[in-house]
User: Which sequence fits this backbone?
């Protein structure tokens, strides 16, 4: 059984990200992957599963608790060290930059763990990218709403048509070298301060 | 040398991050040409790792962390120095309302009298053992923390064996009030404001405080990567000067309200200023601190930022006591050398203030405020007694370690 791929425990409260990592590991042929979301009772789970590698996100506030579990497990001869090789600075840096940390059972050969760590790093990065894109999309939606409100204000206060109101916003933005969303935001803010009531609270 | 130095420092949301926060927010860092960025972290492990790879040049650290790293007790053990302390005291032991009531039924609980509350707890521990009820469970923030060691010290001196008679688990500071409210622990030892938060929400009551267990005792340090410190001695000296002035500002009564408001902000502690101020102005002690000669948290006075090597050795003695490391002369020396009074003194001598002349002192020997030898002017150290009257002489480390060992067996 020495060719058996290492077993992996992924500790992640984020179910979507955990699933992405799990899928990646399974594609790479890792059958023995367990996901744990809730760290309560994790000591028992580690004792039962005896994972070779444990992957946990840096944002998880329970890393200190987890490391304490490892310290205690020294007593049952399962020393766990971080990463494959402390001198492997590049992968350590890549991992921390990606927001992930890994613990490996002592003695496990580096070439057997490296692919798991690389997979975790790339999937964590991919997830962050996804999150950023979503954030941007949310931002875009927000700014469209603001532009609509600014248009409404101009239509009411200046008696403009919708197209003319939009054209005025765009022209102002171009003249001031600002984004149209920013101009709209200033206008909405000013309108609110001046007591304009457009019936909208968002 | 007029260039500004960028320093990124990690911190955990705790009131004792005050000195770092004040250095940034009140201009003390800027005056020393330091652009100080503070990054809130979720675990001490993250702080350690991000120091190791150079994301952070400095950090708010548990005082035993550099020692644990030097002794190879943690993953990614890298050389981290403590050239400055970030104040004295600041923690408390909070227990659930149920446990508080049980203790109260044995002995009136007075947070400034750990001997009395410890005796009450020992009686409850005995009753639980005799009736086969589960052991009491306490939370601390980290195995290598002042919290773990002061809780254990209090328990052991009260005749309770921390590893046998109760259970000690690890939880992140901001989660403690929730963990207590959910009944997953019966009590915990943590820094502020996480005791006052539980008291305010009705989840717990304060049983005792760190400064009553050991008055004027060490808690957080400024941790810096040894390589960075070696390459940037001048920048480190400026950082220490900025933090020293910030500590002085934090300690000044007129600034307490302003400090509480800054710390209360969402990017720092994200808790009401009315709770944050309790540790800063000492009102957490119910106005009795001054009369009893106990300061709940002291950021500056009495050399509160001096990295005493006797503090490092005391923490080391507790690591040995609780089986975290074997006692050897080499280990003791490695622990002592993590704390760097030489760097502190070199940085601050130009300011002309009174700095301790010695690197170590006998801990627990001062029953009242006492003057000590200083580099300039006069310096008065606050009383520093242990609640059980013990004294720690760093020159007699072996004896101290030997006398503490029998406390592992119950006297209950």
Assistant:
């Amino acid at each position: 059984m020495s060719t058996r791929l290492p077993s992996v425990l992924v500790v992640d409260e984020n179910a979507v990200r955990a699933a992405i990592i799990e899928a990646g590991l399974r594609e790479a042929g890792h059958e023995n992957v367990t996901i744990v979301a809730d760290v309560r009772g994790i000591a028992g789970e580690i004792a039962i599963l005896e994972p070779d590698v444990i992957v946990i996100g840096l944002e998880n506030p329970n890393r200190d608790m987890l490391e304490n579990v490892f310290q205690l497990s020294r007593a049952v001869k399962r020393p766990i060290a971080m990463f494959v090789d402390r001198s492997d600075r590049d992968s350590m840096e890549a991992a921390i930059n990606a927001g992930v940390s890994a613990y490996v059972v002592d003695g496990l050969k580096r070439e057997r763990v490296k692919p798991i760590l690389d997979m975790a790093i790339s999937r964590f990065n991919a997830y962050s990218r996804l999150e950023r894109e979503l954030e941007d999309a949310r931002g875009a939606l927000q700014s469209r709403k603001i532009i609509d409100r600014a248009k409404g204000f101009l239509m009411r206060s200046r008696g403009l048509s919708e197209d003319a109101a939009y054209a005025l916003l765009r022209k102002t933005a171009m003249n001031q070298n600002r984004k149209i969303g920013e101009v709209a935001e200033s206008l909405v803010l000013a309108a609110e301060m001046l007591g304009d009531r457009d019936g909208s609270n968002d | 040398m007029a260039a500004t130095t960028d320093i990124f420092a990690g911190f955990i949301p705790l009131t004792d991050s005050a000195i770092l926060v004040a250095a940034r927010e009140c201009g003390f860092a800027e005056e020393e040409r330091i652009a100080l960025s503070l990054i809130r972290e979720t675990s001490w492990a993250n702080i350690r790792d991000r120091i190791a790879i150079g994301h952070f040049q400095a950090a708010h650290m548990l005082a035993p962390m550099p020692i644990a790293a030097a002794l190879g007790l943690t993953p990614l053990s890298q050389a981290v120095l403590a050239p400055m302390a970030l104040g004295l005291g600041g923690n408390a032991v909070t227990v659930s309302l149920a446990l508080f009531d049980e203790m109260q039924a044995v002995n009136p609980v007075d947070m400034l009298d750990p001997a009395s509350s410890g005796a009450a707890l020992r009686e409850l521990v005995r009753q639980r053992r005799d009736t086969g009820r589960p052991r009491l469970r306490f939370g601390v923030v980290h195995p290598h923390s002042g919290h773990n060691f002061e809780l254990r010290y209090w328990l052991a001196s009260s005749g309770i064996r921390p590893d046998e008679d109760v259970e000690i688990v690890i939880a992140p500071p901001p989660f403690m009030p929730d963990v207590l409210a959910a009944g997953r622990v019966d009590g915990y030892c943590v820094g502020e404001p996480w005791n006052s938060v539980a008291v305010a929400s009705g989840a717990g009551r304060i049983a005792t405080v760190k400064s009553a267990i050991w008055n004027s005792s060490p808690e957080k340090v400024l941790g810096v990567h040894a390589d960075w410190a070696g390459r940037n001695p001048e920048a480190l000296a400026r950082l220490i000067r900025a933090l020293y002035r910030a500590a002085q500002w934090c300690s000044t009564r007129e600034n307490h309200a302003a400090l509480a408001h800054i710390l209360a902000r969402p990017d720092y502690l994200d808790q009401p200023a009315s709770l944050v101020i309790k540790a800063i102005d000492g009102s957490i002690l119910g106005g009795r601190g001054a009369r009893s000669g106990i300061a709940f948290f002291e950021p500056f006075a009495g050399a509160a930022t001096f990295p005493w090597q006797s503090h490092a050795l005391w923490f080391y003695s507790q690591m040995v006591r609780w089986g975290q490391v074997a006692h050897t002369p080499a280990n003791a020396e490695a622990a002592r050398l993590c704390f760097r009074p030489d760097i502190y003194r070199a940085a601050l001598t130009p300011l002309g203030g009174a700095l301790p002349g010695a690197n170590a002192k006998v801990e627990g020997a001062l029953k009242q405020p006492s003057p000590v030898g200083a580099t300039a002017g006069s310096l008065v150290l606050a009383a520093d007694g242990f609640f059980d009257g013990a004294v720690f002489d760093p020159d007699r480390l072996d004896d101290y370690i030997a006398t503490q060992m029998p406390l592992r067996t119950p006297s209950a």
Notes: The interface with chain A takes residues 42-46, 49-50, 52-53, 55, 73-76, 141-143, 169-172, 174-175, 184 of chain B (CB under 8 Å). The two ends of chain B are 63 Å apart (CA to CA). Residues 407-412 of chain B have pLDDT under 50 and may be disordered.
